[in-house]
């Protein structure tokens, strides 16, 4: 498994040891913050509870769950259930976790009229040649850029694009019980736009099952939170600057729910960022109106997928989609720096308060 392949999906087995960022008592409250590699980024769990033993055990179980789910949903791991499905074109006995994520992805595809489409893997792979571009400013980017294969990929020709487009369409995915299959040979699924959020939700549920009421889970910008880090203060989440400068377009407060950001600055395949990891299956192109879309939603999976959908749809239809969604808000930053917000976005913002 190459680093490039893992970064493309956003998944990476957590090979290193967890790093304790914070651990200690404040009155009768014990705060613990731990991070480690996972899903192609640093995954952090911060929590507050009344027992140091409970805190440590909850974090251990949450990370173990993450590793198990990544092992099922990583399409760059040849032994994963998703990878086997993509290679064979069918899977007779899919793990229930894969069927649940796929069903969610297909429902979101219907809800967004195809703006979110899990069958765009052939297009994403065509644009990037299976090799992502690591953006400047990301720690370690210079070293990664020197690795063999990490390069800009030439634009596909018309025939290559047409062949890939012929494999796109969620209506060609067949599912009956635990059997999943493709109606067209060569189809492949990518769950990039929903699986990381879904795993973050699973981690949150694991923490809650262990009696943790105050927590924040952060997987490279896919965030789920509940409760508070301390009395009277919400969890704070900064929206990443698309130009990777030391400033934040906005800062939001969370006591319940999730936030996720999609951006063309994350992985791109040409100097102008006109071909990147977000692809519109209906046009065969990467959308360029936005450089960043942040969505808040009740779940990280919904926030993750809806951010991708808004990116594809653009400002007017994208903002309308979120306005019509229950308990969701959105901030879009255009390629010209313009901001587009849903009416309720300012209720999340902590800037100026």
Describe this structure in words.
The protein is α+β, with helices and mostly antiparallel strands and 353 residues long. Among the domains are: 1-75 and 191-227, no CATH class; 81-190, ApbE-like superfamily (T-fold, Orthogonal Bundle). Helices cover 33% and strands 23% of the residues. It has ten helices and 14 strands. It has helices spanning 3-9, 52-73, 81-88, 96-111, 121-128, 141-145, 158-165, 192-209, 300-313, 315-324; strands spanning 19-26, 29-38, 41-49, 90-91, 173-176, 179-182, 214-219, 222-226, 235-238, 251-254, 256-263, 290-297, 329-334, 339-341. Strands 1-2-3-7-8-11-12-13-14 form a nine-stranded antiparallel β-sheet, with helices on one face. α8 (192-209) packs antiparallel against α9 (300-313) and α9 (300-313) runs antiparallel to α10. The longest helix has 22 residues, at 52-73. It is globular and about 65 Å long.
Features:
about 350 residues, 10 helices, T-fold, alpha+beta, three-stranded antiparallel sheet, disordered N terminus, about 35% helix, nine-stranded antiparallel sheet
Summarize the structure in short.
The protein is an alpha+beta fold and 353 residues long.
Write the layout of secondary structure elements.
Layout: H1 3-9, E1 19-26, E2 29-38, E3 41-49, H2 52-73, H3 81-88, E4 90-91, H4 96-111, H5 121-128, H6 141-145, H7 158-165, E5 173-176, E6 179-182, H8 192-209, E7 214-219, E8 222-226, E9 235-238, E10 251-254, E11 256-263, E12 290-297, H9 300-313, H10 315-324, E13 329-334, E14 339-341
Antiparallel strand pairs: 1-2, 2-3, 3-7, 4-6, 5-6, 7-8, 8-11, 9-10, 11-12, 12-13, 13-14
């Amino acid at each position: 498994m190459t680093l490039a392949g893992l970064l493309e999906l956003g998944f990476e087995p957590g090979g290193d040891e967890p790093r304790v960022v914070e651990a200690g008592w404040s009155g009768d409250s014990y705060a613990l913050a731990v991070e480690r590699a996972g899903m192609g980024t640093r995954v952090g769990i911060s929590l507050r509870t009344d027992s140091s033993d409970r805190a440590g055990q909850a974090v251990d179980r949450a990370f173990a769950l993450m590793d198990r789910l990544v092992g099922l949903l990583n399409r760059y791991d040849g032994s994963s259930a998703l990878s086997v499905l993509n290679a064979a074109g069918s899977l007779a006995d899919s793990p229930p976790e894969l069927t649940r994520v796929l069903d969610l992805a297909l429902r979101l595809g219907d809800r967004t009229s195809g703006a979110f489409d899990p069958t765009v893997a052939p297009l994403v792979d065509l644009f990037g040649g299976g090799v992502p571009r690591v953006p400047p400013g990301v720690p370690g980017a210079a070293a990664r850029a020197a690795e063999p294969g990490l390069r800009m990929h030439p634009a596909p020709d018309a025939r290559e694009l047409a062949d890939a487009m012929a494999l796109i369409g969620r209506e060609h995915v067949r599912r009956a019980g635990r059997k999943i299959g493709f109606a067209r040979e060569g189809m492949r699924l990518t769950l990039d736009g929903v699986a990381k959020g879904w795993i973050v939700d699973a981690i949150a549920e694991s923490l809650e099952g262990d009696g943790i009421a105050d927590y924040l889970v952060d997987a490279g910008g896919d965030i789920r939170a509940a409760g508070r880090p301390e009395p009277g203060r919400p969890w704070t989440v900064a929206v990443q600057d698309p130009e990777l400068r030391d400033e934040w377009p906005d800062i939001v407060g969370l006591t319940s729910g999730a936030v996720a950001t999609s951006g063309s600055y994350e992985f791109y395949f040409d100097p102008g960022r006109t071909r990147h990891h977000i692809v519109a299956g209906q046009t065969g192109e990467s959308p360029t109106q936005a450089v960043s879309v942040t969505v808040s939603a009740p779940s990280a999976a919904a926030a993750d997928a809806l951010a991708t959908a808004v990116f594809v749809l653009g400002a007017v239809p994208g903002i309308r989609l979120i306005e019509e969604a229950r308990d969701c808000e959105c901030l879009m930053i255009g390629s010209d720096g313009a901001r587009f917000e849903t009416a309720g976005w300012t209720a999340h913002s902590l800037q100026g308060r």
